[in-house]
Write a structure and sequence with these properties.
Layout: H1 15-22, H2 27-36, H3 46-52, H4 55-69, E1 72-75, E2 84-88
Antiparallel strand pairs: 1-2
């Protein structure tokens, strides 16, 4: 999932997103991409939301990465919410 190639007009990009893509160092982008590894964009609008509204999508990726870190099983098959955490973890 390519989060950082803009897919909307520049005037619609969220300021936090703009700041990350303008950073000369790629560290923040690399970390967020690592967090998003394995994340499923079920409805095909996550990237647009990440770029235009940013904050809720950022925290969704962070939560997903945190749950993965603690070895929880994540289920994307439900209609809502975006994902369900199954039993497991450390």
């Amino acid at each position: 999932m390519d989060l950082f190639t803009p897919i909307v007009e520049e005037d619609k990009l969220h300021n936090n997103f703009k700041n990350i893509i303008l950073e000369p160092e790629a560290y923040a982008r690399d970390v967020i991409n690592e967090w998003a590894d394995g994340f499923i964009d079920r409805d095909g609008k996550f990237i647009k939301e990440f770029q235009t509204t940013f904050n809720s999508s950022f925290w969704e990726i962070y939560l997903y990465a945190s749950l993965k870190q603690f070895n929880y099983s994540i289920d994307f098959t439900f209609q809502a919410p975006d994902f369900v955490v199954n039993d497991g973890g450390e």
